[in-house]
Amino acid sequence: MIRYIASFSVIVLLGAVPFLPQDQSPAKSATFTIPPDIAAQTNPIHPTTEGLAKAKKMYGYDCAMCHGANGDGKGDMASSLKTPMKDWHDPASLKGMTDGDLFYIIQKGKGEMPPEGDRQNAEGIWNMVTLVQSFSKK
Ligand code: HEC
């Protein structure tokens, strides 16, 4: 029931304010924990050309302003954030984070990062996980 109310209010909040102010973010860093069943997940989506093209497009709209068009953490908004942004080209930057960890952070947000929420379905978010990981594999 509590879970239901919580997810319902997230949906209501997302509907009302597309860009959540920090103090309403559902996943504050102080209380941030990734549910173990999600953290244990490996990406179930086999990346396709279309899937990755869509992820890149969405990344340009929703992520690049903070994480940088190439994932270097130097987006236009990065300097106004309190949290230092990681450069994903450095393989150490995502070390120890599982596919499920990245999925959860992208879907729910974390600290100063707004949630992608229901702007994309699970498949779209998994494709974003692949995209984020691909920045360090070049
Ligand atoms: C308003 C700026 C902002 C936007 C927009 C944003 N992020 Fe983030 N992102 C952050 C911050 C800040 C963190 C670090 C959060 C923390 O650890 O407190 C983060 C963390 C992450 C992480 C965990 C790895 C890391 O670098 O710490 C991933 C993966 C991620 N973001 C992906 C995305 C994706 C994909 C999008 C677009 C759907 C996105 N972010 C949009 C600011 C942003």
Short précis:
With 138 residues, the protein is mainly α. The protein is built from six helices and no strands. The chain has one domain (30-137): Cytochrome Bc1 Complex, Chain D, domain 2 (Orthogonal Bundle).
Tags for this entry?
138 residues; mainly alpha; Cytochrome Bc1 Complex, Chain D, domain 2; 0% strand; globular; binds heme C
Structural commentary:
This protein has helices spanning 2-16, 36-39, 49-62, 64-67, 99-108, 122-134. Helix 3 (49-62) crosses helix 6 (122-134). The protein has one domain (30-137): Cytochrome c-like domain (Cytochrome Bc1 Complex, Chain D, domain 2), CATH 1.10.760. It has 6 helices and no strands. The chain is mainly alpha-helical and 138 residues long. The structure holds heme C. Heme C is lined by residues 29, 62-63, 65-67, 77, 81, 83, 86, 102, 105-106, 110-114, 116, 128, 132. Heme C binds next to helix 4, helix 5 and helix 6.
Which band does the percent of strand residues land in?
Answer: under 5%
Sheet with the most strands?
none
User: Would you tell me which CATH topology applies?
Assistant: Cytochrome Bc1 Complex, Chain D, domain 2
User: Structural class per helix/strand content?
Assistant: mainly alpha
CATH superfamily: Cytochrome c-like domain
The number of strands is 0
Which stretches are low in confidence, meaning pLDDT under 50 for 5 or more residues running?
10-15
- Integer average pLDDT: 87
Counted up, domains total 1
Overall CATH architecture: Orthogonal Bundle
Oligomeric state of shown chains? single chain
* Silhouette: globular
Radius of gyration, whole Å = 15 Å
Please report the distance between the alpha carbons of the first and last residues.
Answer: 45 Å
Number of helices: 6
**Topology as a string of helices (H) and strands (E):** HHHHHH
CATH class: Mainly Alpha
Portion of residues in helices?
40-55%
Task: List the ligand species.
Answer: heme C
